[in-house]
Amino acid sequence: MSQTHSKSRQQAEIAFGNAQTQFFARNSAVDELDSIVRSREEKTLRLREARLAKEVHDRATATASLLTRRAKTR
Questions:
Q1: CA angle 52, 57, 64 (to 5 degrees)
Q2: Quick one: CA torsion of 53, 59, 61, 67, rounded to 10 degrees?
Q3: Residue 2, pLDDT above cutoff 60
Q4: Alpha carbon 22 to chain centroid distance?
Q5: 3: left (phi over 0), alpha (psi -120 to 50) or beta
Q6: What is the C-alpha to C-alpha distance for residues 43 and 37, in angstroms, rounded to an integer?
Q7: Alpha-carbon distance 65 to 34, whole Å?
Q8: What is the pLDDT of residues 19-55, one digit of tens each?
Q9: Cα separations (Å) of 21 from 14, 31, 50?
Q10: Contacts of 5 (CB under 8 A, 6+ apart)
């Protein structure tokens, strides 16, 4: 059962298909950008946590070093 459509209907179908393709391409691009932003934010968070942990460790090491020096001088 093959249906034949009018020329204007065929043109409308083609135009709709083109618009739909552009819509899906744009959604794909937006999804890709969202993914990039999300991964950047996750990396930033990991780096921030690592930096803060290092600062805490360095502070504790410096404090222990000062306490050791004070104990030796007394």
A1: 145
A2: -150
A3: no
A4: 24
A5: beta
A6: 10
A7: 46
A8: 888 888 888 888 999 999 999 999 999 999 999 999 9
A9: 11, 15, 43
A10: 13
